[in-house]
Sequence to fold (1511 residues):
Amino acid sequence: MVSFSIISSFGDLPFPEQVAAATHASLLLFFLFFASARRVFACAIRRVPALKDDGRNPLPVRRDPGCDRLVEVGYWFKVTTFCCFFVFFLQAVVLGYETVNLVTGEVESRDFTLLYLPSAQASAWLVLGLSVFHCKLKALVKFPCLIRVWWFISFIFSLYIGYLDTKGLITKSISLNSHTLANYAALPALAFLFLASVRGITSIELYREHGDLREPLLAGEDEAGCLRVTPYSEAGLFSLATLSWLDPLLSVGAKRPLELRDIPLLATKDRSKTCYKMLNSNWERLKAEDPENQPSLALAICRSFWKEAALNAVFAGLNTLVSYVGPYLISYFVDYLSGNIAFPHEGYILASIFFTAKLIETLSTRQWYLGVDILGMHVKSALTAMVYRKGLRLSSTARQSHTSGEIVNYMAVDVQRVGDYSWYLHDIWMLPLQIVLALAILYKNVGIATIATLVATIISIIVTIPLAKVQEEYQDNLMSAKDERMRKTSECLRNMRILKLQAWEDRYRLILEEMRNVEFKWLQRALYAQSVITFIFWGSPIFVSVATFATSILLGGQLTAGGVLSALATFRILQEPLRNFPDLISMIAQTKVSLDRISGFLQEEELQEDATIVVPRGLTNNSIEIKDGEFCWDPSSAIPTLSGIQLKVERGMRVAVCGIVGCGKSSFLSCILGEIPKTSGEVSISGSAAYVPQSAWIQSGNIEENILFGSPMDKPRYKSVLHACCLKKDLELLLHGDQTIIGDRGINLSGGQKQRVQLARALYQGADIYLLDDPFSALDAHTGSELFKEYILTALAGKTVIYVTHQVEFLPAADKILVLKDGHIIQAGKYEDLLQAGTDFNALVSAHHEAIETMDILEDSSITIHSGAPPVFGKRLTSSPSSTDKMKSETPENEPPSEEKAIKEKKKVKRTRKKQLAQEEERERGRVSLKVYLSYMAAAYKGTLIPLIILAQITFQVLQIASNWWMAWANPQTRGDSPKTSSIVLLVVYMTLAFGSSLFVFIRAVLVATFGLAAAQKLFLRMLRTVFRAPMSFFDSTPAGRILNRVSVDQSVVDLDIPFRLGGFASTTIQLLGIVGVMTKVTWQVLLLFLPMAMACLWMQKYYMASSRELVRIVSIQKSPVIHLFGESIAGAATIRGFRQEKRFMKRNLYLLDCFTRPFFCSIAAIEWLCLRMELLSTFAFAVCMALLVSFPHGSIDPSMAGLAVTYGLNLNARLSRWILSFCKLENKIISIERIHQYCQIPSEAPAVVEDCRPTSWWPETGQIELVDLKVRYKDTLPLVLHGVTCTFPGGKKVGIVGRTGSGKSTLIQALFRLIEPAEGKIIIDNIDISTIGLHDLRSRLSIIPQDPTLFEGTIRGNLDPLEEHSDHEIWQALEKCQLGEVIRHKPQKLDAPVLENGDNWSVGQRQLVSLGRALLKQARILVLDEATASVDTATDNLIQKIIRREFKDCTVCTIAHRIPTVIDSDLVLVLSDGRVAEFDSPHELLEDKSSMFLRLVSEYSTRSSSVQDA
Fold:
């Protein structure tokens, strides 16, 4: 009976004490159960291996003998432990005191209820204290989540009970007792524990100790961090619900800036490979199911990810249902406060339901949002991989209809848009559900007037549809304009060297600015249309509410304060789906467009699988066999590219292919590779192939990676390859050896070096068949002949080799020579047989004879130099015996390092990379500087719009609160009471206030759009101008992908995101202050809770931002390699396919995607982690507010005002999390401004024009060039490349510049054009020091035909005369002179003949001739030829030289050439060696000097050609 009375007496306790005791007891039981269950589970796990294999010994724990683990306990942990035991001590004292009183008191008066709360609390705090102490033994970085929740709840209960006790003592309804005193005493300790629960960190650190060295264990992690899989994959239910699995990463981020290695790997199911395989298999299955019709990519995505979407739908549905609980119950709550109590404890039960609903809503919202983010991430990863794979397999015809920029856009824009649709996925079915729920609640409150709500809602939706269509049109046009600008930007960045050399950068910058203006026009329309949509978004609930209330009044219905507040809360919830509907329609349309674009691309024609037939090696003796081959790049063309091809190449044969420019030599190799569409015939290949293209394709990375090309390292083979390709000495001289980083597209290598790296790559693969497309054109005579001997004759002896060449001297070594003309093999046979046959082959050899004879005449002659020549011409220095090629960017002055030194250097690769030309992408660390915010705000109208925006938002908030307050105050509190004003006044005042508020929202939206547009345009123009004015070294060391990332992704953020983020942050701040204001007006006591809550929020935000900021920066940086690999792979697709390396590149793409998704996944999870904690805090604050309202005596507060507070309180958690989130997102997005700001600070090259020192319009008049002690280095940290070059090129003379590859020839030319500024010395042209005049004045007066011929996308006319300075007649004359007139006349569009991206539809030789045409049009007094004829045959070269002699007879012509006949008839020859002048004299004088280096070069060329001479 006693026990029964004890249990039954529990109900006599005050309600707060009942809840507190029950909660502590429940948490204690749960904790004990959880601890024991975990122990049992751990034991079971430990037993499993023993059952599997009893004989196997467990692995011992590896310990470093010199390394001890030290646990260091911080002050925070000590105080926390003390607080726990202090509270336990207080409760134990109370329990003892009350027990003594009960024992000594009378039996009849014993009240056992006094023991319930101290018993539960003493037991709980003892367990809590011991658990906290256990954290030290386990060296936990963070307190367990359950303990933190327990502390949090304890503080809330203590605060609430303390409030009730204080109120009771003031009103003298209770007397002071032990419970009250203990509660007051415990409150400071519990407040500290509340902060500890929010902070979470124990301040326990684990250290390693090595003698005197102490370091945190975490700091010792390097690459090992990457081996950890994210805890998300194995997290328990509680960890998933609270997102506490992210705590370890955030803890690291709070201590130091995060790096990529800190971020754990994704779980297998989340990795790109898994997602890609799933989507690809479903896509292929759909294609196979119905081959006739176009498969649906949307259906393939649904089949692949439906399970994720379905689970996510559960959270979305649950969230929608519980979000309507609050609006439904408000009317009951107002009735309760008005005195209409339906059942006992109704107030507390209502408050509990409100709290539970908000708690479920908070938890489900975070799971829903995280789920859609992960779903979007999976879809994006899978689609990106599919687009990449397709890009590697495209046929030539399909490739012509998609530029690399467009393919990158499919990945960067369309895939992103499809992934973002996951956010709108559930809106299709949720919108009707939300409307039905809203109508049900409204029907309860306003009756039949709900029909008006439905009609008004439908009208609101219909009004937004045309706006959404207009917005969609603007968005489409905006994206098209952006695509065009990005394509042109990409082209300009790739070809910045030629733009600077030709002084065209201003012209192309203006073209880009014009393209941006078109884009900006659509951006303006899109943003202002968005302002109208914002107005409708805020206006539609007002319109719906006015229609509902007016109808209700007109129909004679009586509105009550509770009903009105319930309706207003419902309208506020209904606002979201109404706003989302136009977005949903727009997003569906945009996603459909993107899906169609991607689907269309994925169904493009791939390379013919039957283009080549692979024959097993044992079945045939032929490596290659072509029967009746007919091939055509353009299937619609009537004239085939190659026709009548009959060829048999036996295993081990060497086959040379020759012919004039544009005859089809490169196409011939493409037909063997299966690259060119086959219209008829058969191509059979037996054995593996390696391909070396004419235009070198080099990957960004180091030299070793380019040579290995995915194969494992085999040191002996690697060394023999370096020797065969004459690369060994180069690498020994380099500071970083073969670890030297090559810039974007090999930009910091000379043409010859790029070719030899390509050849090394092919040789290392150990293929059976080698297809070499003119590999010797970029090499000097010595290197070329040595390479031919070591590479083709020695290293490839016994291999099948087909090599295209213009060098006739390499033809006799071939077993068979093919002569091509107009796509036909017109002659085939051995060298001697073809010579006797005469015709075209004879013409090629005759041209070579002609060139050699010129050299012979010069060698035999003994003509002395003209007596009037300056004495400096006779200068001859002792030439360096070294014939080593050098990297253009790095030429150390010290001796080559020994083998040991080289090994040591390679060990330091990671530490020394910062000294190399190509650098890792820079990123800021720590907080975003306030300067960045201020620079953005001042970018538009000097920041004058900011206060106007804030004022408009404050006015909106005040009017909105006033309109709601008016409705709550003016209506009767319960049915039967009389209203405080007439219906007309009620409606008119409400409409005035409500529509006034939405008008100010419109004003704010327009001001934000105006501000954002002006700031975005100003930042873009500043960045564009700075980048175009950057020195060439910036482009050499910065991959184009990085710059493109800033002008596309970051600029899009500035255009579309940041202004609305700023406006949104200001808006949310003011809304939050409004909510807090309304709640404190009714219950001022809540303010006491808001202060610690605000501190906790700010601390959490700071804690979160430390990690989030770095994660966003890492995400931005990791995006660049994905874009870069895309562009690089598409450019080198033929090489990748030639080596059969598609799988490896696909793996690389998947790896880079995972490197991007790892930080992205953590970034989105971190946002939800913060929001969850923010919303939980605000939910508890709301619960306290509700409890206070319930505990007030009836009649002490106005029920309608209390209802208004609850209406706003329902929105508190969403607003608080949105406030913190908007600030965090703003700071994350502002990183884009930071990144653009970085590119606005790039040091500029010299000014384009120096007004005080402008040359005359006829300068240079004579064209005399003086080099005075010229010293040049590529970078301050790198050695000199030119060492004190001094010589004079007389005006009007022809000067040949020769030397080994890498001797400084191209560097000298770059110094002449001031692409590199001299370290010392000067260059004087016609008595003007070129460093004193503007770069535009200098470069526009010089002309160059560069080593790498460049064509821009457009037309032939646009390529010859981009500045539009010449007539068509002059252009035709130039074309005739450069031997292209006939070719262009045959084109149907004539001068408007199209030029594709990179000039891919023109041969390399033809591109070189177009460059000559540019020089002929420009007619500058000084002309520089940098290997200008390397890619044309000897006959065409001879012809070009004659044209140059005729057309530029009065000009100074500086010719860099490896073909000695090209420079042999120059007036003067400058021989460079190791960056010094070895010789400078006339060719006649140099050839007479038997020790002359020039004579050695001529002899090497003659020796190489001796076989031709003998013939």
